[in-house]
Design a protein that fits this description.
Helix content: under 10%
Distance between the termini: 43 Å
Oligomer: single chain
Strand content: 35-45%
Number of helices: 1
Number of strands: 64
Largest sheet: 5 strands, antiparallel
Shape: elongated
Strand order of the largest sheet: 57-64-59-60-61
């Protein structure tokens, strides 16, 4: 069908255009054609239902915006060859249906899995950067070289230029030899770590050489410069010092005819003197009737003393911070290192000016020298005439003799028959054993037991009782942020405090908490599980209603005729009203809305003034720019009658919904009419008629009369018709 075009005439209201009826017939006919069609065809594009189809074979469907425009969908913009999201911070999702996947060429994406559709390898031709952890479940093959920057790690190993280090502090070749098909050689002056190997010598740039827990054996003489160390020992002219604070001679005797100085303690014939004024045996017992001795394998700190040996439980041998382990033989120049031995083919081993350190056993021929010291069977002598242990401890399982004083197993004896501490104190945290009972001032001491009363200033301790002198307080005051901790405290045999509980110990006795003078008993939070408060003022000096800043009730609260439970307020009496009433001229306000204090008229409704105040109003609400009203009237004539009016100066337009009832003939109709005006003339459009009759029951017109727009009706019969209508009027 060809499109029917409306004749709108030459000028407004000139009467040359289509009548309203003819125009609406053309509109209905056009819409009937449109709604009866499955779609529309634009030569090469067909739109049918929800499908857009190209009608020419093999044609593309092209969305082509003008100029710099783009193709825009609700949240996606196609701009040239770019797909862009238009909503801030939203993802662009490509979601296949069901079990389908997203496929790009031969690349397939299923969830978080990337695969190829033809089962061939996926090539990444450019560099790949992985910020997280890379997990490879299958085999990994590198066809090219593996390069890693200096400081890269493999397990505990760190590889850097010229070095391999182990974060665990141990590099081990197990029980395997370190083997090369070439010769492991080093020219004289070559280095291994800090070590420099030359004919007849090993030197260490760090100043320390360690043989770990291996023995160092030589049939020649061990010679070292003064201040040389063996284990924790430092040997200098006239002194042996121990960095660990302990020196052991195994089960050998230590003898000197001079004076032995140990820290602040001086041992000479018949006396022990401490320059600090205090001698302490720590928490050990000091008991002897004979010689001080110790069994083999006795320990002092990390040191273990056995027959002919001193070992260190820390097992420290240092090659920097890494261990070097091999069960094979290491040959460097003239020096051969094998299990338990260092052999020099030239017949001479020299450490130059370097330290010699070993946690194993150092063996040398009797008469070997270190500095001024000569070591022989059972003796250490000093060519300078003085041996000093500086501030180090001296330990031996043999007998220590200093002048007339002999220190043996558990005893100190004096060949002169007298031991004196001069004016020095004797202190021990162990057991002080004396023959019989000793008296120290007013205190009797027997096996470290104190009998009688111990008096400390004003405090007395006797049996299980701690008391004070007359009228003196007993105070327990911790230092700083410390606390006084008492598991259970009983006061006056009547009140006991245990854990977080205060209770009386006497049956049926009251627990009274009273403040002094005008003071008050203040409880931050109170939980009263049982009991009553009868005739007691709460918040007042005389019995009165309690005053609470905040009242919290965890279960239902009953107040005479009402009950408050959770978020529910209800009356207790059957069928009783719940009334909310203000006092005097006060009103009831709920959630910011204030209700009127008296009832309105029948059929009124509640309205607000915009400030939370509610009042009764009649039907026909007035809006900001419009007014809604309704009315009913009966017309029993076929002559034109006035149905409704509105002021020209007040309203510009009005929309009418009109229900018409012809009870005589049982005919009914509902119709809409739009009315507007320009101040001079009124214009009307009648439409949307629904009726059980073949034609309209009334024809509506409009005019202006005496400053009012009139809605006029002309019944199609003279039978009585009832008109009920609603009017929405829009102001000028």
């Amino acid at each position: 069908m060809a499109q029917l075009v409306l004749n709108v005439g030459s000028n407004a209201n000139d009467g040359t255009g289509d009548t309203l009826r003819d125009a609406m017939i053309k509109v209905n006919t056009n819409f009937t054609e449109v709604f009866g069609s499955a779609g529309f065809d634009l030569t090469t594009i067909s739109v049918t239902g929800n499908e857009i189809t190209a009608t020419r074979t093999n044609d593309d469907i092209v969305f082509k915006p003008a100029g710099t425009g783009t193709v825009v969908f609700p949240a996606i913009t196609f701009n040239d060859n770019n797909i862009e999201g238009t909503r801030s911070n939203e993802d662009i999702n490509i979601l296949p249906a069901g079990t389908g996947n997203v496929v790009f060429g031969a690349i397939q994406i299923a969830g978080t899995t990337l695969s190829s559709t033809d089962s061939t390898a996926i090539n990444i031709n450019e560099g790949l950067i992985v910020d997280g952890t890379l997990n490879v479940s299958g085999s990994t093959t590198f066809s090219g070289s593996i390069s890693a920057g200096t400081g890269s790690t493999v397990g505990n190993l760190t590889l850097a230029n010229g070095s391999i280090t182990d974060s665990s502090g141990a590099i081990s070749f197990g029980n395997e030899n370190l083997t090369t098909t070439g010769t492991l050689t080093a020219a004289t002056g070559s280095t291994l770590g800090n070590l420099t190997l030359a004919n007849g010598s090993i030197t260490d740039s760090s100043g320390a050489i360690s043989f770990g827990n291996e023995n160092l054996t030589t049939t020649g003489t061990v010679t070292a410069a003064t201040a040389s160390t063996i284990g924790n020992l430092t040997l200098a002219n006239g002194s042996i010092t121990d960095s660990g604070g302990s020196i052991s001679f195994g089960d050998e005797n230590l003898s000197t005819t001079g004076t032995l100085v140990v820290g602040n303690v001086t041992l000479s014939s018949g006396s022990i003197i401490d320059s600090s004024g205090a001698i302490s045996f720590g928490n050990e017992n000091l008991t002897t009737t004979g010689t001080i001795s110790a069994e083999t394998n006795s320990t002092i700190g990390n040191l273990t003393l056995a027959d002919g040996s001193i070992t260190d439980s820390s097992g420290a041998i240092s090659f920097g911070n890494e261990n070097l382990t091999t069960t094979g033989t290491l040959v460097v120049g003239n020096v051969t290192l094998s299990s338990g031995s260092i052999i020099d083919s030239s017949g001479a081993i020299s450490f130059g000016n370097e330290n010699l350190t070993s946690t194993g056993t150092i063996n040398s021929a009797t008469g070997s020298t270190i500095g001024n010291l000569t070591l022989a069977n059972g003796s250490i002598t000093d060519s300078s005439g003085a041996i000093s242990f500086d501030n180090e401890n001296l330990t031996t399982t043999g007998t220590l003799t200093t002048g007339t004083l002999t220190l043996g197993s558990g005893s100190i004896t004096d060949s002169s028959g007298a031991i004196s501490f001069g004016n020095e104190n004797l202190t021990t945290t162990g057991t002080l054993t004396v023959d019989g009972t000793a008296t120290l001032g007013a205190m009797t001491v027997s096996s470290l037991n104190i009998t009688g009363t111990l008096a400390v200033d004003n405090l007395n301790i006797f049996d299980s009782t701690i008391s004070s002198d007359s009228n003196a307080d007993i105070r327990l005051e911790p230092g700083g942020t410390g606390s006084v901790i008492i598991d259970s405290l009983t006061i006056d045999d009547n009140i006991n405090i245990t854990d977080n509980e205060i209770q009386t110990t006497v049956s049926n006795s009251n627990l009274t908490i009273s403040a002094s003078g005008t003071g008050q008993v203040s409880i931050a939070k109170a939980d009263i599980n049982s009991g009553t408060i009868d005739g007691t003022a709460i918040g007042a000096s005389t019995p009165a209603a309690g005053t609470f800043t905040t009242l919290t009730v965890t279960s239902a609260l009953t107040l005479e005729g009402i009950t408050l439970d959770d978020n529910t307020v209800k009356t207790n009496s059957s069928n009783a009203n719940l009334e909310l009433t203000g006092n005097g001229t006060g009103s009831v306000s709920i959630s910011g809305l204030t209700f009127p204090t008296s009832d309105g008229s029948a059929n009124q409704f509640m309205k607000t003034d915009g400030s939370g105040n509610l009042a009764f109003a009649t039907a026909g609400a007035t809006l900001n720019h419009s007014d809604i009203a309704d009315a009913t009237t009966t017309v029993a004539t076929s002559t034109t009658s006035v149905l409704n009016t509105f002021a020209v100066g007040t309203y510009r337009s009005a929309k009418y919904f009109v229900s018409i009832a012809d009870a005589t003939n049982s005919r009914f109709e509902i119709v809409e009419a739009n009315v507007t005006h320009d101040g001079t003339d009124a214009y009307i459009s009648q439409f949307g008629s629904t009726t059980d009759h073949t034609g309209p029951l009334a024809i509506f017109t409009a005019d202006i009369n005496s400053g009012n727009v009139r809605l006029l009706t002309t019944n199609t019969s003279s039978d009585s018709c009832v008109f009920k209508f609603q009017r929405i009027a829009i102001d000028v």
